[in-house]
Amino acid sequence: MHPETLVRDHTIYACVMGSRAFGLATEDSDTDRRGVFLAPAPLFWRFEKPPTHVEGPAEEQFGWELERFCELALRANPNILECLHSPLVEYADATGRELLALRGAFLSRRAHGTFTRYAHGQRRKLDADVRTHGAPRWKHAMHLLRLLTSARDLLRTGVLTIDVGEARESLLAVKRGEVPWPEVDARMARLVEESERAVRRSPLPDEPDRRRVEDFLVRVRRASALRADPHDEAVRGVVGGRDAGQR
Predict the structure, then answer these.
(1) How far apart are CA 144 and CA 114, in angstroms?
(2) By the 8 A CB rule, do 52 and 38 touch?
(3) Using one digit for the tens of pLDDT, what is the confidence trace for 45-90?
(4) Are 194 and 145 a contacting pair, CB within 8 Å?
(5) What confidence category does residue 239 fall into, taking pLDDT thresholds of 50, 70 and 90?
(6) What is the 3-state secondary structure (H, E, C) of 168-225?
(7) Which H or E element spans position 247?
(8) Which helix (H) or strand (E) element contains residue 132?
(9) Global pTM value
C-alpha cells in the first residue's frame, strides 16, 4: 500500500496548523495541514511495517500513523500536542473524535521540559543570527514568543490554547521587526521565568495517562483487524505469504 493511499483512504483526523491555526496568518501565509492516519491492522502482520509518517501528498501536508502520533503526544512533543488542539479541524471520523476526546490524557508536567528544550534550540538559532547578521529572523522570534506564552499558560491553567487571541498585533509587530531585539529578548526571558514558577503549582499531573491512551490504541487496532476485508490486497499478501511458507 502506497503511503499516499494511507493518507487518502485512512485519515482519521486532519487539521490546519501554522500561522492560520495560531491566529497569526497574513496574506502571504501558507496553509500547513497535519493529520493522523490509521494503517489497517493487516499491514502490521508483515515484516515490512507501514510508515510511521507520510509527507504529502499535497504541499505543506504531513501525517502520522496513529501509534506514532500517540507515542509523541505522550512524550509531550510540542508540535504534536498543538496539532491535537488546533482550532481549525478539517476532518475527524469516529476514531478521530475519540482521539480528540483524549487530549487531556496526553497533557502533563512533562510539557515543561519538552517545550523548554524546543525553545532553547530555537533560541540558539536566533542568537546565532544576531551574532552573524546583527538581528534575528523576526518571524522565528515571533513564533518563539508565541510558543513560550502557550507553554506558560498551559502550565498555569492545564489547558493548551494555541490561538494567540489579543496578542496577535503585538506578535505581528515583532515579525515586522518593529520591536527592538533587547525588548524581545527580555520578553522571552520573562516568559521562561514565569514558566519555571508555573510548573511548581501546575494543575497538570506529573505524568500523562498512558494506560488510557494505550487502551484506546488497542481497541482501535482490534477493531481494524476485525474489519479486515479478506479480498483486500494487504490481507491477501499476508495470507498468501503465510500459506506459501506452509507448502
Answers:
(1) 14
(2) no
(3) 888 999 999 998 888 899 999 999 999 999 999 999 999 999 999 9
(4) no
(5) very low
(6) HHHHHHHHCCCCCHHHHHHHHHHHHHHHHHHHHCCCCCCCCCHHHHHHHHHHHHHHHH
(7) none
(8) helix 110-133
(9) 0.88
